[in-house]
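Q: May I have one protein plus its fold?
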Amino acid sequence: MDLRGEIRLIADEVRQEMKAEFQGTFMTIVCDGWKNSLTGNKFVSFLGFANSSSKPIYITSQIVKDNSSDAFLEAGRVAVNIVEGWNSKVIALLADNARSIQLGLQKLSNECGGLLVLRCAAHVMNLCLRDIFTAVPVCQKALDILNKHVANGTVPRYVDTRWNSRIVRMEQLIVKLDDERKKGKLSTCLQRTRPILDVLNIAQEDTTTWTTMMCKFEELLEALQETGFDEVCTVIEKRRWMLGNIVIYLINWLNGKTGDIGFEMTGKWLQLMKVRSDFDMLYAAREFGTGLEGNTIQHYPKLKVFEEQILYKIAVSEASVERLFSRHKQIHSPLRASLGNDIVTDCLLIRISRQYIEAETTDNTDMILPLYEDY
């Protein structure tokens, strides 16, 4: 048997293991786009977060011809079919804020009967940083200083699409500068942006819940308001709506907080989760005074399990996809390019994704990252 045949056997064996492991689970599918510089192919890659596990698992990578919503729809269909082939149920889709991805996943949600489509919290915080650097004068000035010193080689260039990388470079630049005036401007900018980066970093952790994320977001706003950074607060407030989603509304509502819960979409999703009837009874008790006004989620065991085992385990960020692809040079190897994407990727990444969170970044990071391009 040739190498290709052996790899097919291993991939099939691993898929059978996964089918057994994830049978009957609920899963959030997380996706991200990337480009293999060796082959020039663009991919959309999918990981899954199951309610039975705290670690993401690799599902599939699909070649896409363009960045259109239909391309992401087709790729998403494949990912959903694979998960359903494991006898697992997809309940939510999470991706970055690119319009084509969000539209494609929304089409997929409509096809599948009301799956949740969520925005990546880390990307929202990245947009907050972008808006601050382009709209707040003191941060604009600090960025001008940074750009001049990047141009003359004092510090390395930052990553254009990662606005948090500007903060890291500013911190490095302050150490190297003798000009106190410039250092003061950079420090003032960092006072306003560093707390946002801290929340962004929290959002990228796979163990972060939406409740934790929103608590940190509110704490961030409160802290910035107390320090008088009104311009920064205004920018962040404009992005607040992007973090609003049914997961947050439901968690808050189930725990007695008032507010909009997007009832039409919520009802469809709860029906999919088979807890609609319990939710309706609790809703009637609270909103219409059916004689059970004292009832809380504790009176409805199904809802309590739903909250703990599903709501709190829905992914917050798609950073896990980026970590998987940027840390493991195996997927960029010439061997992979020669044997084909589907066989080698599935074989390697299914294995790797079981333990990659604990893995240290390889010693050859400089060789790996140029081959990985987000798009």
Remarks:
- Residues 328-344, 353-375 have pLDDT under 50 and may be disordered.
- The two ends are 38 Å apart (CA to CA).
- The longest strand covers residues 26-36.
- Strands lie at 26-36, 42-50, 57-63, 89-95, 116-119, 372-374.
